Amino acid sequence: MADKSASKYLLYLEKHLANQNPALLEASRVYHELDQIAYDLGLIDMDESTASKISWWPIITVFGTATAGAEKFINQYLKSDVLDADRQLPRNKFTILHYSSKELPVTLPGTALDGDTRFPFYQISHKIDQVKKGEGSHINTYLEMKTANCQALQGKLIVVAPNFTIEAQNPVIDYLNQFIVQTSDLVLVFFDAAKPDLEDLRESLSRFINEAVRDQDLNKILFVINQKGTAANPADPEIWKRQLQEFGLDSGQFVVLQDAPEQNKLIAQMSGSYQAGTSNDAELKKIHQRIEHINVESAYRILNSLEHSIDEIDDQVIPEVQKAITTWKERSNFTSGLILSFFVFLIVIGEISGFGLLDLFLDPFLAPISIAVIVAMMVPIHLLVSRMQAKFIIKDLEKKKKEQGLLENLAGLFEKSLTFWRILLPIKEPVGWTKQTRMQLLKLKDRAKELVQSLNDNFSAIDVRSKPDRGIES
């Protein structure tokens, strides 16, 4: 089989990680070996990589209602007016904040993210097209990137999601919400303390919570109740907890912030050295610590995703294709059997009509020739029937790929199995799925587990109160 060259995505990762985390550098090499297996099976193309399914950036995503003050919080944290904090209209697109060494901030269209292998949104337009045909070409409607010369942005991305609204469901926004929640290492959800009734947002919040629960990592979500101005009594998080439980949330961490001058000062200090001594101290410290630990959480997420990607081929991709091959053979054999039965029926009718066709199969000399003729007729018919049935199976596999959000091309592996002898013989294993391939995957999984141990050793010697190393920079 042909050797797969490293994708642009992996080449960039290896260049970036060369002088950074050794465990993540080794993880990128394991991904390259996994890519070779996936390529040999026909699951990915030459310049695709299973590593692109995850983000190698530490990512913080911010959700919230339009009046919750999330933009103001981010501006204060970054010490910059990169976001319009006084906007009156709800935010309707995803804004990705990215560090730049240039002084002047720049706003770039979604195509800048879609075409850059360094970002987790690389080729996201193709996935959007799978959700809603033709919408991939409108990526600028859904995504934008803003650069800012803010030290607090170095080594991470901050994604500001569209506000929760009462508008009808948008499948693209829902998909991107799900993608962002799965990709992020920390999710901040802002609510306005002055508007505790969330009933109007039930539909959008329920969809968000369902996506978060599906991700099975609710610990990375932090709900922030933002109380503007000075109030005698802080907002009660239990009000929001009870409502969100009705929407499907079983657990979650809540903090209450006082949007007053003392908070603004502390938020600005969070990207540098943290100082205590105010009534907002404990709540802000929770957010500060979560942001400070994001590099550690990101590293473990990447290694966990590596093991998941290996398991996905064995536990999800291959079984789906095996099931498809079984269904395809059953349908093909049934259809060919009907055609053969029709020929037998014609022979019986001919015998009843006095043509003596049955004698052709009873005569010791003519019987082998007659059977050979039938076989010679049925082979091309069976090949044709099998290929026609395969078209329906391919459509089903493409649909399942979309439904399950898989990068791997299920139909690609299935089509590789449509060889002459595999059509004729009762072979139900996908082409290339051998004992040797399974052993290779087991070895990669063992290496992934060793990398987690290596990461444990690496971080156990780090003072978690110190500022983490930089991540990916432009």
Task: Describe the protein's architecture and organization.
It is a single chain. This protein is of the alpha/beta class and 474 residues long. Residues 272-278 and 462-474 have low confidence and may be disordered. The two termini are 36 Å apart. The protein folds into 2 domains: 58-292, 3-Layer(aba) Sandwich (Rossmann fold); 310-437, no CATH class. The longest helix is centred in the last third of the chain and has 59 residues, at 294-352. Strands 3-4-2-5-1-6-7-8 form an 8-stranded mixed beta sheet, sandwiched between helices. Helices cover 54% and strands 10% of the residues. Helix 12 packs antiparallel against helix 17. It has helices at residues 8-17, 22-40, 70-78, 110-114, 124-131, 139-142, 171-183, 202-215, 237-246, 261-270, 281-292, 294-352, 359-362, 366-404, 410-416, 420-424, 435-460, and strands at 59-64, 94-99, 106-109, 143-148, 157-160, 186-192, 221-228, 253-259. Helix 8 (202-215) links the parallel strand 6 (186-192) and strand 7 (221-228).
